[in-house]
Design a protein that fits this description.
The chain is an alpha/beta fold and about 160 residues long. About 20% of the residues lie in helices and about 35% in strands.
Length: about 160
């Protein structure tokens, strides 16, 4: 079983002490971290690189960050394919938008809406961890024979 910490929409200019403490605690036992965009600054990327990081660019990310990470990617974990994208446009119907970006994936991790989501569309798990700052949530994705995703409220 691979445990993946999932985060999106941090919107930080730099990793604050509170961010480091909170993420350090919540992701202390993960094998990998996925960030679904809008880190805003390459300094946040640098901090999250303390883990095995897979990240994509969001619409609010600075130029330095946009040249470091792709807009979307697919990762294979324990034989499962995970699509990662930030998302775009209105938060209403965002699930259809991200589904249209991938084929042959088991999971799609996305952000942009700041609205946490744990849902299925056919055989595809849709995982939006919400926003670190506004909804105050992150996610935990476990990938093995089965796939599970749970939302975690930041206290």
């Amino acid at each position: 079983m691979i445990r993946i910490g999932v985060i999106s929409d941090t919107h930080l200019n730099k990793p604050t002490d509170d961010f480091k403490t909170t993420i350090g605690r919540l992701f202390s036992e993960v094998d990998m971290v996925i960030h679904a965009g809008d880190m805003t600054s390459a300094l946040v990327y640098d901090y999250l690189s303390n883990w095995d990081l897979r990240a994509v660019a969001g619409n609010m990310d600075d130029h330095d960050l946009r040249v470091m990470v792709p807009e979307k990617r697919v990762e294979e974990v324990s034989g499962k394919r995970i699509g990662i994208i930030h998302g775009r446009g209105s938060p209403f119907g965002l699930e259809r938008v991200v589904l249209g970006e991938f084929s042959g994936v088991d999971v799609i991790v996305f952000g942009h809406s700041h609205i946490p989501l744990n849902a299925m569309s056919g055989q595809v798990h849709l995982c939006n961890p919400g926003s670190y700052r506004s909804s105050k949530t992150v996610g935990m994705l476990e990938v093995g024979e089965e796939i599970t995703f749970r939302l975690i409220e930041i206290s």
